[in-house]
Amino acid sequence: MLYSQALGPQGLAAGKDCLAMNLLQGHEATCPHCWETISLTLDLSVPEQSYIEDCPVCCKPMLVSYSAADGELDALSVDPSD
Predict the structure, then answer these.
(1) Three-state SS for 12?
(2) pTM to 2 decimals?
(3) C-alpha distance from residue 69 to each of 45, 48, 49 (Å)
């Protein structure tokens, strides 16, 4: 039997499952303070989440809120936290 040792006996099918299950995804948003485009890493395994994160450009706090279903982003909002 020939197969890649890195992928194991299931071959590419197991490798595709591992890639499909990556629920940490990068998404672009606009800072509500300085209007710069920023990159956020979202955990799409959580159905709904809100947290405070400082803008990497202007360092002002932003309220990041999002919802996800089946590993897909449904809604994302970035607002001033004050």
Answers:
(1) helix
(2) 0.71
(3) 8, 9, 12
Q: Please count the structural domains in the chain.
A: 1
Res. 55: pLDDT tops 70 = yes
What are the helix (H) ranges across the chain? 12-20
Q: Please list, in sequence order, all residues whose beta carbon lies within 8 angstroms of the beta carbon of residue 10, skipping any fewer than 6 positions away.
A: none
State the residue range of the domain holding 68: 23-80
Q: Kindly give, in sequence order, each residue whose CB lies less than 8 Å from that of residue 47, ignoring residues fewer than 6 positions away.
A: 67, 68, 69
**Does pLDDT of 26 surpass 70?**
yes
Neighbours of 66 (CB within 10 A): 22
When pLDDT is averaged across residues 32-54 and rounded to a whole number, the result is 95
